[in-house]
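JOB MANIFEST
job_type = single_chain_structure
chain_count = 1
residues = 869
[input]
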Amino acid sequence: MAKAKEKEVKETPLMKQYNAIKAKHPGALLLFRVGDFYETFGEDAIKASKILDIVLTKRANGAASHIELAGFPHHSLDSYLPKLVRAGQRVAICDQLEDPKEVKGIVKRGVTELVTPGLSFNDNVLDKRRNNYLASIYFGKDLLGIAFLDLSTGEFMCAEGTRDYIEKLLQSFSPTEIIYSKAARKAAEEVLKDQYATFHCEDWVYQYDYTYEKLTNHFETQNLKGFGIDNLGHGIIAAGAILFYLEETEHKEVKHISSISKIAEEKYVWLDKFTIRNLELVYSQQEGGVPLIQILDQSVTPMGSRLMKKWLVLPLKEKEPIDERLKIVTHLYEDDTLRDEIISPLKQIGDLERLISKVAVGRINPREMNQLKRALKSTLPIKKLLKSQKNTALKKLSDQINSCEFLLEKIENELMEDAPMLTHQGGVIKNGVDPDLDEYRELANKGKDYLLQLQYRETKNTGISSLKIAYNKVFGYYLEVTNSHKDKVPQEWIRKQTLVNAERYITPELKEYEEKILNAEERMIALEQKYFAALVQDAAEYVALIQQNARILGTVDCLLSFAQVAKSNQYCRPKISDTNSLEIKDGRHPVIEKQLPVGENYVPNDIYLDNETQQIIIITGPNMAGKSALLRQTALIVLMAQMGSFVPASYARIGIIDKVFTRVGASDNLSKGESTFMVEMTETASILNNLSDRSLVLMDEIGRGTSTYDGISIAWSIVEFLHNHPKYRAKTLFATHYHELNQLAEDFPKIKNFNVSVKEIGNKVIFMRKLKPGGSEHSFGIHVAQMAGMPNQVVLRSSEIMSHLEKDKSVNKQKAQMKDLPKNNYQLSLFEMDPKFKTAKALLDQLDINTISPVEALLKLNEIKKSLE
């Protein structure tokens, strides 16, 4: 007890205040405002100095001890804060809550914002082209609930489902932070596997009654039926916990979160987490690879870019909304002039969605308010253009755009065109808005002119050529005279400060004007701040309307992007049908075709699948012949069509697909102790257990992670299972190098064999990359090895073994043949195997290549040839 008291006495008042605030936010790195600096202490200082690469020093903590210290100027917060957040830190920003000039003793301080990876408005923390989602997960007995919030845009969604469904949503939305209850820590670790920044709340937060009330209080409604989530108990718990977390992190201004929506599983194509990864929709698996989003996203607004990502991972599976998107894309595709006319003002809009969120939380600055004005101005011609079209869907979009003319006019009339970022810099509000403001501004400006005149007059009167008038916080305005002119200073000047090379003086006249100028400046800034705050308040009433505008403009941007991409890449409009058939003519891979060398064209292919006659296609052919590309392009064409985009083909009729499954390529998880084969079997099991009648299944080289006979057996039984499924006829493309599977087509009516053709010219293989009916005879693996630069003796030996084994295809005979393989004695040289070669070698040894003429060389070659006959 005595020791504790002693420590209290020794602690400085500042550190006492710091420790009290730090105790309330133990998990956060505390940025503590001291004068013009943000300081960090102790462990926080050590972390901050490493992350920010700033100097770590020590300061005395009273008589008790020394404590580590690292800080940076307060105006550099915008450049340092993003680095801390990206390093996964939760950052508590502690500001001075009163003016130090008016306080005796220690200034009152408090945390004004707790910035976490998932909660930020800072433009340097956020990526314009992607949402910054905070996710909350509730772990129920059988189902999980999940909610996503992007605080910077106000978008709020929830869902519930199985663990697989929640994992798929996490992969689709890529949250930057996830919260859950302490009790669920073990379950959360299993699902999240250290891939996300996480935070756990107290268990009582994740209670249904508490979270339901939290949501109804926030939205000021009796219940949640109007949002369509009333029956999502687990989803409600996850969403309510997010609102609690916002309060905890000092995010109290949340009016822009004006609604919550359900992520309706039944509306979107099911893409499991393996498929999103394998098809490289949003991210590439290889460094420097190109995902599909990079080809499709030519949007010019951040809203369009963010929406495009969402459309890509949530393709539609209802004919009507897909057709509506396709109609608009067709209209824009056919009218080049309209596209140009819309894109031009659209480029001026910027991030309207995040701008209006800043208005709602009172964080918008004058410069951003001018950007909001430009965005509102640029929206008007777009609304007019859409309204003038014959296309009813475009007219409908036009009607949903609000002109917000009153707000636009108000900003235009009151805000200076070149208003600075900070309100205390002045020059924010236009002349003519308030006569008092105009008067103060004139006085402040004239005062400065007067000071220049005074400087000129006194220089002339005294003959002090280096005389200058300057200002500092301690003395106010003063006259500075260098020591060489000191003797010329008039007696009535009052000396205030002596420097090494100069003296500083004040005069009664200077003091009188200083008072006038400073008072005028202070009052001018106070009035400007008052008017700007009122302007922000007026804009806040338009939050819901402008959020709606941002959504519509994002939609228009996405559809324009589809039209633009279709035009430049020769895509065709797909026909969406309710039938069970999938027909693609001259299909191409949208990404690979853009990566080909100049002059090389992508080889297109046709695909036809249905539930009755051709449900499963077994594709054989050598490695590198293009089997994987063919599988992927089929899935990408289907997904692009169901997003509402044109597709890379000459014709496409898409019978709506509701689930896409892929098992493509090796995805080893060796770091987690799982073999290639184990991963492959886990992913395949997930497919076979979740089939539907409208599924599209793509399987590439199943069973290659184990022995050949195991592999063939597993692949064979999977194909049989898909063909004979009692309920569902999943359309399947099955690429394999096991040509034994071609036998299946003879036994099952809905299985057809195709192969990716190759041409053999002598010992060389040319990949034609064309799909044609019938099975492939052999795999050309040895030719591929040769092309890859395998040492010649390995290639020759492989050919020898291959030709020996191919004498008889039966498995038992092959086993016997393995014993009889011609032995490869590496000690024998080529010429020791046959006496004729010795003669040839002797003739070659006699040759002097540097002196022999071409005719002699031909004669000698003929002689060597005869010696070998």
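[summary]
The CA atoms of residues 592 and 602 lie 8 Å apart.
The longest strand covers residues 751-761.
exit_status = 0
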